[in-house]
Amino acid sequence: MAIGEIIKCTGAEDLYRRAEDLQLKGIKTEFVARNTLKVVGISSNK
C-alpha cells in the first residue's frame, strides 16, 4: 500500500470492513466516493 492509493470496494459493508481491517494494520484511509477509499497515512509502528 502507498499513500494516495485508491481502494475500490464492492459495497458499503465491504467498505467499512476494509477500512477497519486497514486501520488495525496501521493504514489510515478516507472515504472519497461511492464504495471507494483512499490511503492517506501509514503508521510505521504496526
Task: Describe the overall structure.
The protein is α+β, with helices and mostly antiparallel strands. The protein has one domain. The chain has 1 helix and 3 strands. A 3-stranded antiparallel beta sheet has the order 1-3-2. A hairpin with a 2-residue loop joins strand 2 and strand 3.
List the helices and strands and how they pair.
Elements: E1 6-8, H1 12-24, E2 27-33, E3 36-42
Antiparallel strand pairs: 1-3, 2-3
Structural class, please?
alpha+beta
Task: Give the number of domains.
Answer: 1
How many helical stretches?
1
Name the quaternary structure.
single chain
What is the typical, i.e. mean, pLDDT? 94
The overall strand count is 3
Helical proportion, percent range: 25-40%
Q: Describe the strand arrangement of the main beta sheet, using strand numbers.
A: 1-3-2
Instruction: Report low-confidence residues grouped into runs of 5 or more.
Output: none
The major β-sheet equals: 3 strands, antiparallel
The radius of gyration computed from the alpha-carbon positions, rounded to a whole number of angstroms, is 10 Å
- SSE arrangement, N to C: EHEE
Task: State the distance separating the first and last CA atoms.
Answer: 13 Å
How big a fraction of the residues is strand? 35-45%
Q: What is the general shape? A: globular
